[in-house]
Amino acid sequence: MRRFVVGIAAFCAFSAAFAEAILADEQPARVQTALGARSGYTYMGPDTQALQDDDFSNPGMLWVDEGEKLWSTAAGPDGKSCQSCHGDARTSMRTVATRYPAFSPQLGRVISLEQQINYSRTAHQHADAFPYESEQLIALTAFISSQARGLPMNVSVDGPAAASFERGKTFFYQRRGQYNLSCANCHEQHAGDHLRGESISQGQLNGFPIYRELWQAMGSVDRMFAWCNQAVRAEPFAPGSQEYVDLELFERWRGRGLLIESPAVRR
Amino acid sequence: MPNTRIKVPETATAGDIVEIRAVIQHPMENGFNVTSAGVIIPVEIITDFVCEYDGGEVFRVKLEPGLSANPYFSFFLKATKTGPVDFHWLDQNGTKTDASVTLMVT
């Protein structure tokens, strides 16, 4: 990581200033952070980038639309919707995607955005939790995450989140699976190189939930982690497992400063 | 009902060629994908897309399993008079999805 930063020092100084100027802009800018983190957008071809840039043709926005409808749909015996407590998502949810996963005082552990949504549904709306990877949960996650577009990822990794962060960091650097590869082997040591016909990205999470062309569907962070684990022939963890929440916390810290692009379009 | 998005310009001058864009959220299962258990996921597609304007059909597509998910179409029509632009999607089960936007022509 240090070698990488030193190597692009001049470019970083320029792009850091550039990033500050663009932060105020409506369109999220794809820049490198001062620490060398690169959005997955920068590894995509121009067609995929164009698909993401246009809100009309970005397939992920179809799920954001669904999420917007769900936001104001009543659920549970009291007939409350998300909107009943949280009002206009544009303001109340503006920074949420930048700071999750976060420590939940109610649950006593670090939780993901999906888990926070389900906690609010069960504890406050007294409705059933949405299953992981369900259309509704993805739609709501996409809708809430998209409210933070253009804002830099900024998760807290100290205090009560410190233990989770350390576990996530260990996971990231730990080899696993039949291929005996760690996340870092590809996404740090070979980011920018090719794996057969595909270029390897840094595996950053600033665009999640993503519309992945490979799946022709939206996917959450946990779906991506499970896919990556299966790709090295490792047993994937269950969606919502603490291992994946910890890993997501570490990953978002690793990409801190990258602007949220949800819903992003990726290969 | 599947989610749809339509883009029709709000206003146009008579005689203008305007771009119409429409997309529907649909997995368009092509019948070749398998579940992790090795079971083939059956074909599930939209079969027809029709656009009507000014009393007639202006655009029609017959969709086949080879098309990708969330089929997106963009085409041009000539603005003649103010009226609704109607969109209809029909899937293989006969389920219809409709949408409509009014085009104001001056």
N/C terminus separation of chain B: 34 Å
CATH level 4 superfamily of the largest domain in chain A: Cytochrome c-like domain
Work out the count of structural domains of chain A: 2
Q: Name the helix and strand elements of chain A from N-terminus to C-terminus, one letter apiece.
A: HHHHHHHEEHHHHEEEEHHE
Oligomer: heterodimer
Task: Give the overall silhouette of chain B.
Answer: elongated
Instruction: Calculate Rg of chain A over CA atoms.
Output: 18 Å
Terminal Cα span of chain A? 25 Å
Largest interface (CB within 8 Å) is between: A-B, 10 and 12 residues
What string, H for helix and E for strand, traces the elements of chain B in order? Answer: EEEEEEEE
Put the structure in a nutshell.
Chain A has 267 residues and is mainly alpha-helical. Chain A has 13 helices and seven strands. A three-stranded mixed sheet of chain A has the order 6-5-7. Chain A has a two-stranded antiparallel sheet with strand order 1-2. A two-stranded antiparallel sheet of chain A has the order 3-4.
Would you write up a description of this structure?
The complex is a heterodimer of chains A (267) and B (106). Chain A has helices at residues 2-7, 9-23, 46-53, 60-71, 82-86, 89-92, 96-99, 113-124, 135-146, 162-173, 183-187, 221-231, 242-254; strands spanning 102-104, 109-111, 194-195, 198-199, 210-212, 217-219, 264-266. Chain A has 267 residues and is mainly alpha-helical. Chain A has 2 domains: 1-31; 38-267, Cytochrome Bc1 Complex, Chain D, domain 2 (Orthogonal Bundle). In chain A, helix 4 crosses helix 9 and helix 8 packs across helix 9. By secondary structure, chain B is mostly beta strands. Chain B has one domain: Immunoglobulins (Immunoglobulin-like, Sandwich), CATH 2.60.40.10. Chain B is built from no helices and 8 strands. Chain B has strands at 4-7, 11-12, 17-24, 46-53, 56-62, 72-78, 83-91, 96-105. Chain B has a 5-stranded mixed beta sheet, with no helix packed on it. In chain B, strands 1-3-6 form a 3-stranded antiparallel beta sheet, with no helix packed on it. In chain B, a hairpin with a 2-residue loop joins strand 4 (46-53) and strand 5. The mean pLDDT of chain B is 94. Classes of the chains: A mainly alpha (267), B mainly beta (106). Chains A and B meet through helix 4 of A and loops of B.
